Amino acid sequence: MKLLGILGGTFDPVHWGHVELAREVRAALGLSAVRFVPAGDPPHRAAPVATAAHRLAMVELAIEGVEGLEVDAREIARSGRSYTVPTLEDLRAETPARPLALIVGADAFAGLPTWHRWTELFALAHLVVVARPGHMLDPATLAPPLAAEWAARLAGDAEALAQAGSGRIFVQPITPRPVSASAIRAELAAGHRDAVRSLLPPAVLAYIDRNQLYRSHPDAT
User: Is the dihedral of CA 11, 26, 179, 155 positive or negative?
Assistant: First the structure.
């Protein structure tokens, strides 16, 4: 059974960088799909500006008709903090034979020791680390517990992911896309709609306009 990619985040708002990253990683690793999992109550950052319902709706619009991209609302439906381990446990319980690939940015990977039950991630999924512009991964800077996992689990090629059910770390190079949700929010709050037109799927920008989102939160993270 092919790997299923999992891409979590606040998606506040979802933008072309998210969509193209998912498409690129899916193609590179031969994933059956990449599933977007919007966080309801993210534990590692300030509360999202847009509501969970708005963020879910924008993801649905962004990936509509895009082959191999899916959306999963379980973290929004679940009460409490949106921790990743329970999400992966649910997914594995639904289809035990289906291996999972958790897609994380290099900066998020470096912060894994702060995650809830982080060492249990490796029993549930492979970790695919992608580098965002300005956030290249330097293994020498990893916290000692994570550096030990890196040394023990790093896979030299994508084939290693298919040979194990979980527990490998693979670094996937991606095309640099210098776009961020925080910058988009700041431009919209400043009234610079045209500045973000090329950064968002048209349906997402139309949804933002229709619902008057991000009009007064230029400093939100």
Answer: positive
Give the C-alpha separation, 81 to 78, whole Å: 8
Integer-rounded Cα radius of gyration of the chain: 17
**145-191 pLDDT tens trace:** 999 999 999 999 999 998 899 999 999 989 988 889 999 999 999 99
Predicted confidence (pLDDT) per residue in 92-128, tens digit: 999 999 999 999 999 899 999 999 999 999 999 999 9
Alpha helix stretches (DSSP H) within the chain = 16-29, 52-63, 74-77, 84-94, 106-110, 121-124, 144-153, 159-162, 181-189, 193-196, 202-211
Structure tokens at 36: 């977007």
Q: The whole model's pTM is what? A: 0.93
3-state secondary structure of 157: coil
- The 10s digit of each residue's pLDDT in 67-92 is 999 999 999 999 888 999 999 999 99
Q: Is the peptide bond before 48 cis (omega within 30 degrees of 0)?
A: no
Domains and CATH numbers, the chain: 4-178 (3.40.50.620)
Rounded Cα distance between 48 and 66, Å, is: 25
Dump the DSSP string for 61-125: HHHTT-TTEEE--HHHHS-S---HHHHHHHHHHHSTTS-EEEEEEHHHHHTGGGSTTGGGHHHH-
